């Protein structure tokens, strides 16, 4: 390499031209004046932090990690990565009990699921919500996702043999949500894939992707999850030659990009084999596979691209799949953040900001008045359902519903 | 007494002049500082900003080394907000002679410099950016110093002690009666006024321009301009100063300074005519990058922000009219003793590190001439802003939980940052986002630190010194200056000058992200703003 | 994925070409690395040579109302620049003296609008000026953040409280026949500038601010909506990293996000802009085009890239990708038959198309026309 043939910096922070475009697209800035904004918190702050970690600013915790700044940046600066890396590197405040509970989604799921009816009953009670609000600072407006008693893993275990009979196989990283809260989405995926002649297997033992651990300041624990999951992916991809599919955009982004970029866990050998199921299905159809759709299916669907899917750049696959269903009136909603961002919106201190961020999206959904809102993210689903009253379905579930 | 009469006139607003004014003012003299352009525009502001431990001189120049380490320790006490106690490394690379390390350390210790040989592994851990191939490392108490801040703090303290300052004012001639200098004729470049000032003693503290001033006074001081070119990288790659442990040579010091780091320097004799407009050549740029990458390999792939050059005032030893025999030490000339010219003193040579000592020597001569017997206190009394040991302490005392911008202000202003806590939120608005400079800090500088132009403002606040080189902040700050000075037309021209001055340092390294930024700045100012 | 045409670069050129193609029934995708130079748009097309009516129509159909009226526009620094075509809310005056007395209104604490420079500039042209500041409690939340009293954030508030601005300006207005306001109106709601004009009994002039440009973002939103409504696909935040070219024909491109999922098309338009947007990349040794490695016209001697005077035209800004008269990109001295080049990427090598925004639009239309002509043939 010749001297100065190209220059590089961590997360490209020196490619920042200070053009301020990112600040125009940051949803938090519009709602929370305490947040210094992506440019200040990211590339501007980085130069000062390199001088002395003392210049680290606690207000970086208000970043949603929605990555909209990165999508908007004309210079390819990994603004959100800079902010989250700074939090990992410099913020040593021990996480609160509440944050620890919220962050450990799989632990919570494991503990709660056997007692699902009781837990669901209790967390749904007004009095419990008031107590959670007062003691743990989990906002009372929030409805806890319901826990499902027999998990998805258990269900698929019972169908192992018939799945193994399909000529083509994929592995499925279902994530905490499908296993503990909403196994139906997993079942829907199995239905669609089976219709394409593809059988579904589990990874030997998956762990939560760890995004909530990262955003709640538990990066060491997150790194352990990452190392475990990458080993699991290697087993599926390298040993068994399988693609690994997901139905959650956030789990996907975390495992593909946050692992190497924020946690320093290398996944280069498996990264390209980890796909959103929508992409896998689209590519299959593009190569000639077919799905048989119901003749009488009619639905007006408003599709919201979750922030992390927008960052992945894969919203296009959901758009194409949904709009190819005969009888679907498809509306692509404007690119906006719903405001929940995983556990962020659950915190009492963030509730108002969270709702203010989501307001334009909610307003558009109400004006479109669809039969159903489609979205590939479970936390967006909670937020949109709570804030608008419209039902939200994963595109995979819509496909499952629309095929014979 | 006439308003234009003083005890002493100091010509030159570099660190030597400002330091001399402070010392004189603290000893009770009525002082006037005259500077042709702005403070720290000569060699003061055009070097590494290295707080020398003296180690660099230890082998060849024990006297300079001793002066450096003594002044180094003094500056830590009196100028805490201008310096960064980073420590430094002298590294030996495979192509260097490791035997030199022993000579080096022994010489350091002899001069009182705490030099400690450390394991190369430890060096790599202490300074991850260092060339990993190093075979030897010595740790020394180097650091960095912000020369603009140091100069401004000296000037401010002189003012607090009753001193007066005339910047952008050029000395056009001397008022001479017989064999005595009685005062100076001046011309103000901004308002066009010509004014005479009188004092029984005038100090020539003009660095390389001192030869010209001396000549105007009728005496000869032989000087030799030596250009040194340097590069500023856009962020700090190192947190310890990195030097080569060998005979001093080109581009062998990398200094972390504030939010950037600086590699330098070269050394080329240039003719006097070039002193006012030194340019960095492509060859110098290549040399600096090549040699710099040997100290810290990542420099070969780090964005460069600026190239600049300064002129060292080398003085020929007084007994050698040929000029071949150069003195790198301090030269303090009482021209009454040397040339029979009364009321005229030249202080020159030396270095940024020894400015205080130079000022003390010059002030001693001035006081002797004026019959003033007051001891020098500049080594004990902290500069305004340096009353606390660290910016952490400063910020903690001013704000309950300081923001990043407030912390940055505390780091730049020291205890003077208390001035910007006005309770008015609008004063917190950021003008320069790269360096986190607020309206309050800019107004504080305009109020107390003799700011006429945007470039002056930059030297005092770092406005426009960041990555974008004034892309947005220049016109915002111009708005504030126009308001303060009440002259928009002048500010419009000033804004153009400022952008020109930034471009001058950008184009010698105009490629990659720096060229992208330049294109954007062109676009913003020419097409969008219509300048 | 297959498209008729893939446009690389989602700025003004890309959108204009995309709309023209999509309108003609071409299935088109735009791939954009991030947001674009419309964020720094002055709102006027400084040099446009021909095609005025067609451009007016194309923008009007997207809801971007333009007006053609050769004259001068008021710049943010209070100077005047010649222009022929501009957004409707940006005035083009026959001569600089557009009023007798002018009231310039700014917001307290807003440093990105240069009221004092404007006043001085207008006074130089013989207009008497008064500068006043509005202190709106609705902007207080923005002021809590030291870096967010900026155009876009203010514009979001103004979309809500424009009626109040009218009232406040009416109170300030004495006998002035013109009012100058910052361009912070009509970000989401394009009708706001017009409403302001109707509500204030004097001629209202909107003068520019520091970027981001509110009229520019509004233009972008409307053009992008139009493109998508016509059925176009806009891939935002993605970047073309590789291209498959064979025998002078581009077959497909790969992007960072879609990695091994190649996007195929019959035709490609490259409008990735200049240095800022990395359409051109420079290092100490050369200027190059990073995606296709196209031929770039530049001076081999780096010393000749710059003019040491900032105010003069800079030679490096005239460097650009080489293209034939139909705007086919050149590679190794030969034209690639289905790759067209448009916009700033062409540098100053095609002066017949004008400069900046004018060049962007006219070359984009020209490239789209070539594609459509070939399809019909």
What can you see in these coordinates?
The complex is a heterotrimer of chains A (about 400), B (about 525) and C (about 375). By secondary structure, chain A is of the alpha/beta class. Chain A has helices spanning about 20-25, 40-50, 70, 80-90, 95-105, 105-110, 115-125, 125-135, 150-160, 160-165, 175-180, 185-195, 210-215, 220-240, 250-260, 275-285, 305-310, 315-325, 350-370, 380-390, 395-400; strands at about 170-175, 200, 245, 275, 300-305, 330, 370-375, 390-395. In chain A, the strands form 2 sheets. In chain A, strands 2-1-3-4 form a 4-stranded parallel β-sheet. Chain A has a 4-stranded parallel β-sheet with strand order 6-5-7-8. In chain A, α9 runs parallel beside α12 (about 185-195), α11 packs across α12 and α12 packs across α21 (about 395-400). The termini of chain A are far apart. The model of chain A has no long low-confidence stretch (mean pLDDT about 90). By secondary structure, chain B is α+β, with helices and mostly antiparallel strands. Chain B contains 17 helices and 24 strands. In chain B, strands 5, 6, 7, 14, 15, 16, 17, 18, 19 and 20 form a 10-stranded mixed β-sheet that branches. A 6-stranded mixed β-sheet of chain B has the order 9-2-1-13-22-21, sandwiched between helices. In chain B, α1 (about 15-25) runs parallel beside α6 (about 145-160), α11 (about 390-400) packs across α12 (about 405-415) and α13 packs across α15 (about 475-485). In chain C, β14 and β15 form a beta hairpin. In chain C, α1 runs parallel beside α7 (about 215-230) and α5 runs parallel beside α6 (about 190-200). Chain C contains 8 helices and 19 strands. Chains B and C meet through α15, α16 and α17 of B and α3 and β14 of C.
Quick take:
The complex is a heterotrimer of chains A (about 400), B (about 525) and C (about 375). Chain B is an alpha+beta fold and about 525 residues long. Chain B is built from 17 helices and 24 strands.
